[in-house]
Q: What sequence folds into this?
């Protein structure tokens, strides 16, 4: 009697075991592939690869970036809010805090970001970054030219004369006689810059969201469901194996 | 029971956030670092990096060195370098003193990360003293083994890179004719 009862359940369980397996197979494949990628995140450098796909960025709610550009001779120095300084749409250096000003430091070009200064040659080659360790007044708000061809920067509503030779910043009561304002770069450079924007979204984030199922817009519930289905598969699988063993014993 | 659990969780959060804040800080300015590095008044110098030096710097750091010149101060065969390197996400400012091609001291001047700040303690930085570049190697490398710190892997890695880079720059400064300071002062 006992064997007949389990015989009725077995085909039903087999059918559902196969159906569940099919349903979760693709999602399990996704879990496995993304899981392996996440296990080797640093080696594969997914955390350093920004997403540039516009539709993916829009899915994440990343809007088109604010563009800040200054012209210095033939150079267009730009910032697209990703912490980098672009020279003619090519990334050149970090620009911690965003671009705030550009000044002529003949024979060089001085670029001010909120938390660092960047020195370039007139051809756009990176000469030097002046960041930590030299007590640079921060956050830099503006860069200008004070009286008698002295460059100055403003931080915390105080103007400082810049001594690039000794990296000294001397508080001054002088105000700038001139400073550059941001301007609109040519259309080609604007287009190239906007294509580079990633809003801080890296492929690490996308992989994590794929792995958790959040990328499909269902929060964590999708993978929770996969988990429940896997539990069902495991239980049904073990039951089918055990009942198969029992059947073979009964036949002998 | 729930009340004491929440209280414990809140306390843990306070402790952890305090720890994170305690990691960050400015521990020495450039002036203090240079003042402690030398007995006599040092000379401010600039090392200009050519293609080969930039390639070697890239080998050491694992990424392109930002810039083509490096400031340092020197007295005789003793030099002091201030260099930044990213730990996990933020730059760490290091000061390295090299004396006669040997590391005399490594110091954290400013730490900006929320963890890994243990690298600034003498018990860790003392390991670097006496370190030199390995001989007869095509790529510059430190000749000393440095024990890591659990939870500070990236900071340790950054410090090792900077120590090696400073040693390399010191040897280059000694062999390459260094330019004087090329940028004019802009103070009136």
A:
């Amino acid at each position: 009697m006992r064997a007949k009862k389990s015989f009725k359940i077995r085909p039903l369980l087999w059918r559902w075991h196969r159906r569940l397996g099919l349903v979760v197979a693709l999602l399990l494949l996704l879990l496995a592939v993304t899981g392996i990628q996440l296990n080797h995140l640093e080696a594969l450098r997914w955390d350093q690869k920004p997403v540039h796909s516009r539709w993916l960025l829009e899915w994440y709610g990343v809007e088109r970036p604010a563009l800040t550009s200054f012209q210095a001779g033939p150079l267009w120095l730009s910032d697209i809010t990703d912490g980098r300084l672009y020279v003619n749409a090519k990334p050149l250096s970090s620009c911690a805090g965003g671009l705030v000003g550009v000044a002529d430091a003949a024979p060089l070009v001085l670029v001010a970001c909120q938390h660092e200064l960047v020195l370039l040659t007139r051809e756009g080659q990176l000469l030097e970054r002046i960041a930590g360790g030299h007590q640079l007044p921060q956050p830099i708000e503006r860069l200008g030219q004070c009286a008698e061809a002295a460059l100055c920067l403003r931080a915390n509503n105080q103007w400082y004369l810049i001594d690039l030779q000794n990296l000294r910043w001397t508080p001054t009561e002088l105000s700038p006689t001139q400073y550059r304002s941001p301007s609109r770069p040519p259309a080609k450079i604007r287009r190239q810059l906007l294509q580079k924007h990633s809003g801080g979204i890296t492929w690490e984030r996308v992989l994590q969201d794929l792995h958790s199922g959040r990328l499909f817009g269902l929060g964590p519930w999708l993978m929770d469901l996969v988990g429940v289905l896997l539990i069902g598969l495991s239980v049904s699988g073990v039951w089918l194996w055990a009942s198969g063993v029992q059947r073979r014993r009964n036949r002998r | 029971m729930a009340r004491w659990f929440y209280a414990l969780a809140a306390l843990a959060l306070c402790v952890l956030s305090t720890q994170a804040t305690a990691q960050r800080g400015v521990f020495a300015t450039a002036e203090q670092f240079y003042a402690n590095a030398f007995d006599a008044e040092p000379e401010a110098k600039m090392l200009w990096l050519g293609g080969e030096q930039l390639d070697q710097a890239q080998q050491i750091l694992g990424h392109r060195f930002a810039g083509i010149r490096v400031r340092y101060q020197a007295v005789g065969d003793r030099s002091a370098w201030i260099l930044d390197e990213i730990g996990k996400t933020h730059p760490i400012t290091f000061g390295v003193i090299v004396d006669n091609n040997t590391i005399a001291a490594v110091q954290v001047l400013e730490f900006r990360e929320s963890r890994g700040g243990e690298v600034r303690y003498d018990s860790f930085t003392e390991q670097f003293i006496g370190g030199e570049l390995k001989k007869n190697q095509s790529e510059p490398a430190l000749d000393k083994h440095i024990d890591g710190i659990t939870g500070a892997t990236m900071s340790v890695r950054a410090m090792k890179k900077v120590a090696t880079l400073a040693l390399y720059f010191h040897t280059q400064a000694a062999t390459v004719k260094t330019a004087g300071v090329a940028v004019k002062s802009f103070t009136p």
Notes: Chain B has five helices and six strands. The beta strands of chain B are 25-26, 43-48, 69-75, 78-86, 91-99, 102-111.
